[in-house]
Amino acid sequence: MCLILLAHGAHAEYPLVLAANRDEFYDRPTAPAAFRADAPHVLAGRDLRAGGTWMGVTRSGRWAALTNYREGAAEPATDAVSSRGEIVREFLVGSDAPDAFLRRLQPRAHEYSGFNLLVGEGGRVLYFGSRGGDPRELPSGIYGLSNDLLDTPWPKVRRGKDALRRLLSRDLSPRPAYLLELLADAEFPPDSELPDTGVGREWERMLAPLFINTPAYGTRSSTALLIGRAGSATMVERSFLPGRVAAGEVHFEFTAHRAEHHVPR
Questions:
Q1: What number is the average pLDDT over the span 126-149?
Q2: Whose CA, among 10, 81, 108, 240, lies 20 to 30 Å from 215?
Q3: What residue ranges in 9-140 does DSSP mark as E strands?
Q4: How many CB atoms neighbour CB 29 within 10 A?
């Protein structure tokens, strides 16, 4: 993921509203969201090169989403040997409470390139950035996460949070289609608002919209996830080819149960 917009405890009917864009090179093979054969209770896409995932939810309502941390030309040397997508999978198939999981993850975060992770279960949401200090539990609110620390005010983060806030203020039952429309915003901010992350001005400009569209790299999928107070869960994922060409949409609805079905590791 390269953009996650999150409303946590900010809507009367839906304690969790999440809208996210996954940006990646088009030549990286990917499977769309599905209940996984090796973990039947986990609904997630799959990176077919490394085997992990960027976002997912279980039939109990346990969920996780991850972004990379952009370090550009200044990226430090690292002994990272593992795919960041395995972190999300590990949480989804596991049974640790979110805070216990992040405490166990923190000492080995150096095994991965820089990342940001949001995890949630039972109404709790926690954040951990491998470049940003200790894990922390988030109070109710609206949050935005791109390829820097949580709520770093990049233009896409500010614009996305404002759009999500407006949507929730006027809609008693936010629809996935509205969240996906929000994520399709391809407007470029002024150059004066661009961050400097070490990738050069041209790339900063191309990466600045909520929806990215370049010949080789761009928004591969947009996902909306809503979990209601009574446990209703809806997840819709829309996939794209280069040029913003629609490549399919999958839609899932289920009731999140507290009992978790675990897969041995």
A1: 97
A2: 81
A3: 16-25, 30-36, 39-47, 55-58, 63-68, 115-121, 124-129, 136-137
A4: 8
Contact 144/127 with Cβ under 8 angstroms?
no
What is the number of domains present in the chain? 1
153 pLDDT above the threshold of 50:
yes
- pLDDT on residue 258: 58
Q: Which two tokens stand for residue 230?
A: 């009574």
* Residue type at 111 in one-letter notation: E
pTM higher than the cut 0.70: yes
Position 77 pLDDT exceeds 50: no
Q: CB-hemisphere CA count at 13 Å for 177?
A: 0
Helix (H) or strand (E) holding 251: strand 245-255
126 part of a folded domain:
yes
5 within domain boundaries: no
Whether residue 24 is contained in a domain is answered as yes
Full residue range of the structural domain in which residue 125 is found: 10-255
Q: Is residue 244 part of a domain?
A: yes
